[in-house]
């Protein structure tokens, strides 16, 4: 039996701002853009991983959710307490410089971690934590 990751989901509060970051800053390709019942899902992915997708979705993708739950999700998103994604890169320092130059919110400058990677971290426009790592010595 083989199991592989196909999709992961990241909550965003503004799909156009998210696209400006994921497509224009990170260089991910847009694979799908779907609207349904007042909501929107945009699928992006790395050109080097055609079988793995990141779906940018509303904080709560349910048209029947209560206003209180919708507000709670928006507050968690604003605090950066929802999802995050870790990316593998071939040059953490160059990746950091490019993303920082685009004005992204820096959480951690590149540093060597005791568990064998050099990594850095940013927040996307919605507040999600994104980490970028390469194996130490690479």
UniProtKB/TrEMBL annotation:
CDD domains (alphabetical): VOC_like
Record's keyword terms, sorted: Metal-binding
Taxonomy, superkingdom: Bacteria
Transmembrane intervals: none
Span of domain VOC: 4-135
Protein's UniProt keywords contain Metal-binding: yes
Name of the protein in question: VOC family protein
Organism: Lysobacter korlensis
